[in-house]
Design brief:
184 residues, mainly alpha, Rna Polymerase Sigma Factor, Chain: A, Arc Repressor Mutant, subunit A, 2 domains, elongated
């Protein structure tokens, strides 16, 4: 199975603006939604998305197709986000109520839970994870990247991704079990 974006990349590298525009169309919403989840603000997410795409276009000649274009773009986005965090050093994470209005409406593992209060609680708990675990959860569960793709984006071994996910799930289970369930 080949990545259709590879042909678009080849055309974009040759100066085909339609191919570049199609690449943006294919990936913009997903990258924006990911940044929106990470930073909690539309304006910051839009800025980060623009920076990630600008950096991608500036380095498109380096994309060799060894990974999917999406994985490569997420890798660039991850580094853009980490640089943004270093400059900004936010004091707090997005408020819990933000999760009820998140911009990405695609199903994720937590949306199968019927109780919105519980969903909000789980999202808030994910934001309490240490940054490495939080980024791993965001990429693997929210963005749907495979273990190998997540490892590539974060520049760690696949076993590290698996470990972080196991630890994050154990933490979430422990915290959820400690919380009394609401009565109906």
């Amino acid at each position: 199975m080949s990545d259709p974006a590879i042909a678009l990349c080849d055309r974009a590298r040759s100066g085909d603006l339609d191919a570049a525009s199609e690449l943006v169309s294919l990936h913009y919403e997903r990258i924006f939604a990911w940044f929106r989840r990470l930073c909690g603000h539309d304006a910051d997410a839009a800025d980060l998305t623009q920076k990630a795409f600008c950096k991608a276009w500036a380095t498109l000649h380096r994309y060799e197709g060894r990974s999917s274009f999406s994985t490569w773009l997420h890798g660039i986005g991850y580094h853009v986000y980490v640089d943004w965090l270093r400059q900004r050093q936010p004091a707090t994470h997005p408020e819990n109520r933000w999760w009820l209005n998140r911009s990405d409406d695609r199903p994720d593992p937590f949306e199968q839970i019927a109780d919105k209060e519980t969903v909000s609680h789980i999202y808030a708990l994910v934001e309490q994870l240490d940054p490495d675990a939080r980024y791993t959860v965001h990429l693997h569960y929210y963005q749907g990247l495979s273990i190998a793709e997540t490892a590539e984006v974060l520049d760690v071994a696949a076993s590290t991704v698996k470990y972080r996910l196991r630890e994050a799930i154990a933490y979430l289970k422990k915290r959820i079990e400690a919380r009394p369930l609401p009565t109906l």
